[in-house]
Amino acid sequence: MSRDTQLKERWEQLVTILSDQFSQGEDLDLDAIIYLIGVQELGKVHNEYKKDEKLNLMHIAICRLLEPYGFYEFEFFDEDGWPHYKVKEELPPLKAGEQSVLMKEAIVNYFLEREVIS
Question: 74: which strand partners?
């Protein structure tokens, strides 16, 4: 099985699992899944968040997802429990499709580590 085929199958499996759990079966998009990861990383799953906080949650998720690739490094938790990351290496310029593939791969790896998918 090619790497692209495996990624596609795992991505579809993950979208199904998360959509069934969080959106009554309507497929979650990439941004919604990134948001869910941000909430998971913050650890405050039952809070309601304002618009700016939702953007910060997505930023947390992106930093966490790209940390294994060497782009970010965890620094500290602030007094409110929010994680902070520093940039280790700037992301190279990527086309929209390349960004999407990178994020899907990072998300699949995140959920593989947590044994949500196999």
Answer: 85
